[in-house]
Amino acid sequence: MSTTTNDTTPRHENPNAAEPLGAQADVDVLRAALDGPWRDLRERVRRELPADAITGTPGESIDVQRERVTRQVLALADMGYGSIGFPTEHGGTLDYGASCVAFEMQAFGDLSLLIKLGVQFGLFGGALARLGTERHLSAYLPDIMSGRLMGCFAMTEIGHGSNVAEVETTATYDVETDEIVIHSPTVSATKTYIGNAAKDGKAAVVFAQLVVPQVGDVPDGEEESGEHGVHALFVRIRDDEGNPMPGVTIGDNGAKGGLPGVDNGTIAFDHVRVPRENLLDKFGGIDETGAYVSEIDNVNRRFFTMLGTLVRGRVCVGGGSGSAAQKALAIAIRYGDQRRQFAAPGEEQEIVVLDYLAHQRKLLPRLAKSYALRFAQNAMTSRLQELEDAAKSAEGGTPGPDHEDAQRELESWVAGMKAQTTWHALDTIQACREACGGAGYMAVNGLTQMRADVDVFATFEGDNTVLMQLVAKGLLTEYRDSWGDLDIAGMIARVASQTVEGLVENTLKRAGLQKLIDGATPRNDETALDSRGWQESMFSERASHLLETAAMRLRKAGKDNGFEVFNNAQDHILAAAKADIDLRVFEAFQDGLEAMEDGPARDLMAKVFDLYALSSIEEDKGWFLEHGRLSVARSKAVTTRINSLCGELRPRAVMLTEAFGIPEGWLENDLIDLGQDRAGVTR
Amino acid sequence: MSTTTNDTTPRHENPNAAEPLGAQADVDVLRAALDGPWRDLRERVRRELPADAITGTPGESIDVQRERVTRQVLALADMGYGSIGFPTEHGGTLDYGASCVAFEMQAFGDLSLLIKLGVQFGLFGGALARLGTERHLSAYLPDIMSGRLMGCFAMTEIGHGSNVAEVETTATYDVETDEIVIHSPTVSATKTYIGNAAKDGKAAVVFAQLVVPQVGDVPDGEEESGEHGVHALFVRIRDDEGNPMPGVTIGDNGAKGGLPGVDNGTIAFDHVRVPRENLLDKFGGIDETGAYVSEIDNVNRRFFTMLGTLVRGRVCVGGGSGSAAQKALAIAIRYGDQRRQFAAPGEEQEIVVLDYLAHQRKLLPRLAKSYALRFAQNAMTSRLQELEDAAKSAEGGTPGPDHEDAQRELESWVAGMKAQTTWHALDTIQACREACGGAGYMAVNGLTQMRADVDVFATFEGDNTVLMQLVAKGLLTEYRDSWGDLDIAGMIARVASQTVEGLVENTLKRAGLQKLIDGATPRNDETALDSRGWQESMFSERASHLLETAAMRLRKAGKDNGFEVFNNAQDHILAAAKADIDLRVFEAFQDGLEAMEDGPARDLMAKVFDLYALSSIEEDKGWFLEHGRLSVARSKAVTTRINSLCGELRPRAVMLTEAFGIPEGWLENDLIDLGQDRAGVTR
């Protein structure tokens, strides 16, 4: 069937619904709450992008898909989507956060297109804009934003994906010719999985170990070797005719698990020379005397500062995967709301599958989590923008150490959200596929390509497990900073008192003295399960307990057993990181809910929040029971309440997906045309 | 790199291993244990099938893949793989169980090929052989086994996938012409997702509602309507030139989420006439007077008997997905054993990623579960063969009611195993993909295509959730049969006593009177975690408790609230079904272990078993804590022990995957050639 493009009118009038649904007005209120601070941009995208600008046809060959995606990228650039978030003085439009929101909206379309847009305008253009200086921006940004200059972000190598500080490509300054020589000394130094490399890229921002033979003063400790760590350089990789530049070898990664429209490839350099000016030298450069200069003394700190400015990539990847999950839910819930299978004994008509508890259980908690993650994504994007604004208005243009702390803190949050949201998306799209049965497996219905595309989101822009490790590292550092002045004995006492408290609580409760405890600790069993305060205490106490006990374990690490102690506690550390991100998501949902005006939409949102909070608790009920945070009776009550919430939300499930505001035309699937799916429809 | 085809020599000499590995002899012993009763056939397949007979090239177009798969099917038929499991009097070879084992082995190759083989020889050929009678077998089997007659299994319709008893296609006997008229009265009656339909199928076994206008005596209750329920018919769908037969409309399902080499399509019938003899009439037919005759009186029972004879399809799908999971583990564990990333502080060389606990945690419990499922699969296949043999040797050729009970019981087991193994495979292949990072996403490395192909295994040959429901139904029926003579009060008393026992145990334990309890119940905290008896009690008590309490809840169901009571308990019922399958898997592993001779291989196997058992317990620790089966201390001890088992098994991880015996040449991936992946290898 074909639907009118960009019709976002809710279609929640559902003949199968057990009770009347919320009004159109309620959908609008929900949508506004979910849209968050960049609502205008979201509405503009919904209104202005026709389906053919944003969607693809699954099943076409790689060549056809690549051509289509390139065409769409250029068309979107023509519509101004290439310039969002770039500095206005160089022709950029809107603000930095807006570029993340545009990405989220584009993620409702074809994900090959999304990633190609991300490579061109986010990674390639973004790295140039944030690591380069005035001369780079004025020379290249206009052509990048228009798509006339397509380029790559050449960081990952065969030998180093996660540990990019150890890439092997070298960039050696040749003082004689005032050039820098880019070289791949080994096979494993080959850049790989690089988007835009196989077909379209004319240039690349190449990350390489910068070596500057010793001239004049250089930062401490770096004099001897002349090695200044990883830096980025602008390098032409193809000439105007599309042939590789001399010394550049380009390969094609070929077929991948997904993203068929993205031309990922390999790039190797054989002593390729570029002018000194091609070094993107915002954080470290080579002056006219051939000396290395940087305001940041430490090699590692310098590199992580550079990476930190590129944090937007992870914000986008997380947000994009969140959109994909929302789209999958919109498809599967609509299907489940129409598809019938098996009649109850004595009944003529078969049952709508979303009326089955097991089906609700598959879809509705994931829907609730999608709401939660959207609020968290909005909060994170706002924070990104705040820090951006603060940096811009900082005196002398250089933000102080507080800003740097805030930046590190944001990076940690972003890392964790990227990991949690991409995993959520994979899990959700798969559940949606299965919930649609064979129809879900047909490429035309959009779910399988989406699942295949999102797969790699879990490992690119940072491997999820490594990112969660990063979150943990941030937490532990912060923890050490706060508690550093406590001696070990004090620390033990503190943690022990916590543990003893838990133990007593636990023991008494299990001993049947429930009421006694309940009187003393109103936050527990007698508090309603929908008490936000109780829910919050569950999330926050888990986070702090896991962090404190992880820190305790790591204190045992000495010089000789450092890796062993760390490694033995790795599951614990990762759990602490996850608990922290879960708490942040909870808080963001709470803020989002509180910002809503009283009314039926807010009441509905509160139920979605309950479902999110209780499902999260149930998922980890083993931990809560182990740590005396849940009594046995209450643990079972949580499950019972989730089931009843599923029943309560079920009649509003379609409406809740309409609040995502995905234009009908973009839901390129046959599932919407359910007529043929109903038994008995005459041919 | 290219490896010698069919070199299954273990390559476990690993320079990174922390301790010496088991001898080649141990790998052989493990492999023999895993190979089970059809070891000879497995060894024959390993020896005789070259890689190009069994593997494909990912990323090729659908047309190219379909052609390749068709070619491979015919070549395998030439080698005799089409005749395995068919009746020997019609040219079949080996036994019925062997056909399942051949399928499992072929699942180490390309899965499009696997499914095409399954459609042709298992579904199409199998349905004809088991639902047809002598005249059908002698007329068609030779051509089916040779691949000269390609065909379809046309059961699923647009409107009915799970509830196939309600397919809408009709097969109406026309007494005037002695023909049967096949017709699709509605759009939703169109057969869909049918393998072999889009390109190769010349015929189909079509499932349709049989209507025989009233002539003579017919079974009770069916006289009025002449409707005898779903039957299967042999129908030509294409002529020898490949054109659709008159009245047959064939469509192409086109691109799917995976299985690109399988030509799934749609078939609709417009009053297509076939001779009466085309009715596959083993369980119900039309005699020469035009009267319907069947030895089975009840319409439903008749249809479920027919479906029951087709249980092999589910055995195969489960087994095939299990093989895919094993292959994914072989790839990811080998990669993890070589790939290095991040150096410990002060170290020069980076750490092998499988040395990280988090990486072990991702892969080793899934490896252990793969072992468990293989033993269960072997046991199930043996049981299938036993019942087959029993049926054949039954007096008068008709097995008695005991056999029928055994058959129902097998079907339930098969349903549950199919669901659990396919879900395990999806989860495992995904974890393996992520564990290989970007390399895992490259199609050439085999993981993504495998993941995409296996996806549909979760919903075809029975939707997994529906299958688990079937397991539950079987359990509850059996339970009712055993306890049917108890009155409700007796039942309540029994369950209540269980509950009280749990409660007391729970309360006392949590109250710190651990030792008192432990003295009384040696099975608990003081029993070693590797006590097989304790582990078994955990699996079996969970299964019986969940079943008993589910049965209690369903007793409340009356005529008016039947669906509601059932639906509210659906999550509970599904948990009971899963617990039952988990117990069966545990028991199969136990039997498999016990059959091994004492020695290092058996000791190693016992550790793998511990890891499987404890990981399963940990996964559901919330339930065990809730039900007083785990104390808090013991729950934490389980986690600690899993971590230490991961460390103990890690040096043997590669060897444990070698025990699967996947020929090197079939592991069509670059991951094996790890040279380029190592940093510093000179170009």
UniProtKB/TrEMBL annotation, chains A, B:
Residues 152-272 form the Acyl-CoA oxidase/dehydrogenase middle domain. The keyword Oxidoreductase applies. Pfam families: ACOX, ACOX_C_alpha1, Acyl-CoA_dh_M, Acyl-CoA_dh_N. It is found in: Peroxisome. Its EC number is 1.3.3.6. It comes from the Bacteria. Residues 538-665 form the Acyl-CoA oxidase C-terminal domain. Belongs to the acyl-CoA oxidase family. This is acyl-CoA oxidase.
